[in-house]
Amino acid sequence: MDSWTNPQTFNDWLKRVFTLRPVALVLLLSLAVIAELRFDWAEQIIGRYLVTTNQFRPESGAIWEKGHRTEDARQILEKIVTDKQAVQREAREAQNFTQVAQTLSRGIELIISADHFRQLYNELPPELAAELLSPYALVRIVSENEWDRAFFEPEAGGFNIYFLNKDNRVLKQLTVSGDMLARIEHGETPRADTLGNLPQFANRIYPADRFFRALEAVSEDVRRQGVPWPENLLKSPGRVARVAISDEVLSGYIEMGFEIQEAGRTRVILFQGRDWAVARIRSVLEGETFEKQITF
Q1: Domain count, the chain
Q2: 262 three-class SS
Q3: Among 209, 231, 206, CA closest to 283
Q4: Is the pTM value of this prediction over 0.70?
Q5: Residue after which a domain boundary falls, among 151, 184, 217
Q6: Rounded to the nearest 10 degrees, how much is the dihedral formed by the CA atoms of 201, 205, 208, 214?
Q7: Same domain for 175 and 198?
Q8: What does the pLDDT look like over 110-167, one tens digit per residue?
């Protein structure tokens, strides 16, 4: 027994090693290693255990952090794609440049077809359309049959427009400044309102007959510069009841409002007249001479 528990010689060591229990233990360990290499049972047991305890373990460590960053990036990309899709859908449904500008205010570029741009251009008041781009220049661009789409790029206060062909070559660039955008937003579409509800016209509202008498008293050039494209008034059903003049000058223009009454409803059509011409018309309305300096 002492040779087993306290071997003193080499023979005692051999007897201790080559007994049943050590040999059996070595065989069992060898079988376990072989089985692991063959069937990966240890990894499967550990994996099942980790799965069952996964919800109780804290989300920490390099793998978790990488997973969080991947998920955050995926959500950001999904939002960007969703926003761009929404913007493009709104752009395709836009009926005028004001709606396009509202879409661009999100800071995302948009693209519309050449035909859609022409529709928006035709919705502009003629004087604003000509200021944005000469209709003769637009006809020339269309006739060259290269223009495919218009790319809108937002910038501080306004936006840029690029006419592109199918190869993305820029055929024409237009810039809509903040001042021009404000004039477009004011004068692009009639408002279902009255002049009395528009603060820019406070205390400067005149009966239509008085205004048109003053308009007849000035030269044709003053009329055309002060009230450009009066044909737009003829296209609107109803009659002009009152006219108002703003006292604010924006990029050399003064806003005028024409209140139209039709079948129980009232609308306001806004015009942008040259400041000097509107000042002369107003001088006649107020009973002043042309030579008297007009101050606003």
Answers
A1: 3
A2: strand
A3: 206
A4: no
A5: 184
A6: -100
A7: no
A8: 888 899 999 888 878 777 788 888 989 999 999 999 999 899 888 877 889 999 999 9
